[in-house]
Amino acid sequence: MPSQPPPLPQWVLDLNSTPSPKPKPTAIPDPPGFTAALSAKQRSQSSKNAPQAAARKPPTSEEMDTLKLKKAWELAIAPAKQLPMNAIGMYMTGSTLQIFSIFMVFTLFKTPITAILSLQRTFAPFTTPGTSTRLLPAKLVFVVMNLLMLGLGLWKVNQMGLLPTTRSDWLAWESERTWAERAVPKDWL
Amino acid sequence: MHLHAIISSAACCIAGALAIFADEAYHIDYHRALVGFPTQDATFFHQPYAGSKASLVYTLSNKLILAAVNPKDGATVWRQALSHPPNITEGFLRAGEEQDTVVSAVGGEVTAWSTSDGRFVWKTKFPDTIVKDVEILELEGGRTSREAKDAIILLSGGEHVIKRLDGKTGAVKWTYEDISGDSPFQVSTSATGIHYISLHSTMLGGVKIKVTSLDLVTGQKLDQYTLSSDNEVISPECVLFAGANSASPLLAWTDKAHTVLKVNIIGTKSVSTFNAPRKGAEEVQKIVLHAPRRINSVSHFLVHYQTASTHSAEVYHVDLKKSVISKAYSLPELTGNGAFTTSTTDANVYFTRITAEEMIVVSSASHGILGRWPFKTSISKDQTFPVHGVSEVVVRSDSAQAVRSAVLFSDGQWVLVRNGELVWTRPELLAGALTAVWADLPEQEALAQELAIEGHENILSAYVHRVKRHIRDLEHLPAWLENLPIRILANFGGKTPSTSTTEIQQDSFGFHKLVIIATEANRLVALDAGSAGRLIWNIDLPKLAPGFTFENPTLSASHGYVEVRDSGLESPLLINTTTGGLVSLQDTTTTQNNLQEGQMLVSFDLIDGELKGFLDKKASSPIWSFLPPNGERIVGITARPIEDRVASIGKVLGDRRVLYKYLNPNLVLVTTVLDATRIASVYLLDSASGNLLHAATHSNVDITRQIPSALSENWFSYSFTLDSTTELSSRGYQLVVTELYESAVPNDRGPLGAAANYSSVQPSSALGDAAKPFVISQTYHTAEEISHMTVTQTRQGITSRELLVALPETNSIVGIPRYVIDPRRPIGRDPTALEVGEGLTKYTPVLQFDPKWYLTHKMEVFGVKKIITSPALLESTSLVFAYGLDVFGTRVTPSFAFDVLGKGFNKLQMLATVAALGVSVLFVAPLVRRKQINSLWQIP
């Protein structure tokens, strides 16, 4: 005789029989501001009740393009937002050669250059046949913004005196004049 | 800008801490405290205080340096340079028995010095007179006094006077004036009184010796007699000996041909006559009489006869009671020159005979040899011989136990020989150094030549040449490998490998350079600057050029040999730098001038107070001449050194702009004085064209003092003394530093622009006429007079320079860093941030010599005449050598020794660290491997 399975534990029963979402109507009203979660049925009813909220149809490709373009522009402007912070940071670190300022300058050079190099990849999600031409200004702005960042790095490097921009940096390549005569005291001959 | 600022400020910090490290002192530098040649009459052994066991050698040298030398090691215990008028060359030094002072007399000054430490005791000055003799009064009324013994001095001036000076204070006790007009010769003291010996010239040309006896206490004249010596004596040189404090003072003279010897016991009128020994045809050239100086010693004396090739001696005894002088015995004739010394023990007198091979001690009483010591090491080389000396003899039971003699040899070495063994050598000939020059070791020069060949060939053939050279170098490999363990051990022991005495060690740092010195005694000496100034060779110049005396030799070093020139010498002597042998002209490679291709050679010379430039070596008509205006007299000419490497042609300013240096190889600085108005001027000339580039005039200058100057790179400096008699507010010594730039405007190359070539003789019209530099100058007051200055030199000129100045008042040499005397220091304001970046500080009129700048630290370098510098192979290091009286050498690193490990570097620690790391890797490796394998097996 098959043995009788043990009775199901209470927690299984609880799990299988969830309390009804709709609480029993009580006299106690809901607190102000509380909206009870609606069941799927209720939701469909409410949507039917609202005439302005018609069933959302999928966006057209033009709309998608516009959206993508908008997103692309946001991406293009993003480096500019970091610019003031970076500038303040660069200014605060001063022009001495320290490990921190060297690291900061290094990232200041690395980030824009890698960003420009991975330009196509960055904008790939937004590239569709419709947006490819309209994306160009955004890309351009992105490049310009990164160049600005690079410019900040260059300014910083110049502040640190690492750019060979002055006469003294090229002094080693200048040569002494050759003199057509050489005069020595007679004793030295 | 900031990078430069950092670097230059870092350089300043380094330079600020620049000094000689305690562990380098006496290792990198060497100093010979010389005195000059000791004189025969003023050199003696003497106890520094009564009852002292040890004695010192006291000497007054021909350079008038009074010194006490320790006979044990030859170290100078103390020295005093006696001040003297320039024309005085003679001095006297006497010490009383058991006295703790020595009395010196030079010129018109009699000074007493403490024997143990050389401190000044008293001084008495007699202006306008010259001391002719000094004697110490040993006996006072027949007994020796315990007090400080008085001195008797003979002064020659307007009238000749004898004075007795108090031994404690130097005060004059009495004065005796000689109004006869005879020329004073000497004073002599004896138990009975003082004898004043003067020379009375007769009508016939002979000289009569007049002896005047004076009372000891009052100085009154007691007696006077004249010896008829006019047949023999015709000049004071013929009088051989007088007195010298013996119990029986003697007076000995000879004739001009040295054939007869006449001796008189002072106080008696009898004269004994002896004939000089005559063997063979050789004439006696020199007679020297040696008598004991001690008052209680027996009256024996030795007469030394020197001929051209042999020497002999005779010993005489004086019978005081009978006043008879008799010959006791004679010492055999020996070839070569010899020297005799006298020493006394109690009343006994011993004579030490020193020849080039041995030393022999005999007693004055009999001719038996008490001791004979052949020289163990050959002390004298190349036929040098002893000139004179002093000895101390220890005699027990009629045999000499020990003898030590301080002997001056003819090669200028002062040597102490103890029982035939060489104890020490002092190269006193270096005290008379006239000129010196640096010479590279020949191997170094050979390498430089090979490299030059490689530099001028095309790449392929240069490469083949180099490979061949390296294969040839392999022959040194076995020797190198053999020496390797020794060198490594020496490195860890912190010691430099010892060098043998003959070999000149080649080193990779270029510290081993030779200094070739020409001395007053016409000798040429080579020192190794790398091994504490060791003497390599010492040759006699007149032997190489017979019959020629060198007056003002000039030296110049070339590849492997040194050229010696003199105004009277037809062709220069060429001398091998390593061996000191004569080199013939055929063996040498053609001399290379430092001329570049297409350069025109102009030579200039000072002729009759006028500086003239010649296009040709042979004196044709000058292409330019410079005569200072207003009748000024040229006192000094300084030209830029032939090798003056400049690393950077401009000076980088704080804002990274460039001030271009005016780099003209033909610069020459002429210093002149105008005696009448006490004006000193400097003129900077372009010596190719004779153009005047810059002139400066200073008034109220003490023109009797020196005006040293130095010229290097694009700057020059000079120093002078302001006249102390003027009413100026500023007095003392001034140092002027001047820099030359192509233009006052940064980043501008001046009127010549970027032109790569320039001829100052034929300037192109497009460039305007002669381009004059922009000059900035600053003056500093120094606390001491500067007697000589020069500039350090390094291989590439990258290292900053130091101005080396000799300070005669403190007997020291100071290296002033160049940045301290930068004429661009801001005046009257603090430097701006940019100027701070350049390392400029605010101008201060007084230049304090930082104690850290003193290259001589504890040493006292006397009488520096000149300092010469030379680059080492290391860029950081410049070799310095100073000569004059003392010899001093060191190495300076003006920008710190940046290219060599310091002595503080712990090689053992470094090795231990490496070994510990290696061991730890061995232990950690299995752990890491296990960890890596485990990580592969784990689920990520």
From TrEMBL, chain A:
* Pro residues biased stretches: 20-32
- Asked if the keyword Transcription regulation belongs to this entry, the reply reads no
- The membrane spanning regions, by residue number, are 99-120, 140-157
Q: Which InterPro entries match?
A: TMEM85/Emc4
Region described as Disordered: spans on this chain: 1-64
* Subcellular location(s) per record: Endoplasmic reticulum membrane
Specify whether Endoplasmic reticulum is a keyword of the entry. yes
| Gene Ontology annotations for the cellular component aspect, listed alphabetically | endoplasmic reticulum membrane
| Extent of Polar residues compositional bias | 41-50
Q: Which residues form the signal peptide?
A: none
Major localisation? endoplasmic reticulum
Which key words tag this protein in UniProt? Endoplasmic reticulum, Membrane, Transmembrane, Transmembrane helix
Topology of this chain in the membrane: Multi-pass membrane protein
The text of the family note is: Belongs to the EMC4 family.
Give the PANTHER family listed for this entry: ER MEMBRANE PROTEIN COMPLEX SUBUNIT 4
Q: Write the protein's name.
A: ER membrane protein complex subunit 4
Automatic annotation (TrEMBL), chain B:
InterPro entries, per the entry: Beta-prop_EMC1_1st, EMC1, EMC1_C, PQQ_b-propeller_rpt, Quinoprotein_ADH-like_sf, WD40/YVTN_repeat-like_dom_sf
Would you identify the family this protein belongs to, as annotated?
Belongs to the EMC1 family.
Q: Where in the cell is it found?
A: Endoplasmic reticulum membrane
Q: Which residues cross the membrane?
A: 908-928
Q: Which organism's genome codes for this protein?
A: Lepidopterella palustris CBS 459.81
> What protein name does the entry list?
ER membrane protein complex subunit 1
Q: The ER membrane protein complex subunit 1 C-terminal domain covers which part of the protein?
A: 712-937
Superkingdom of source: Eukaryota
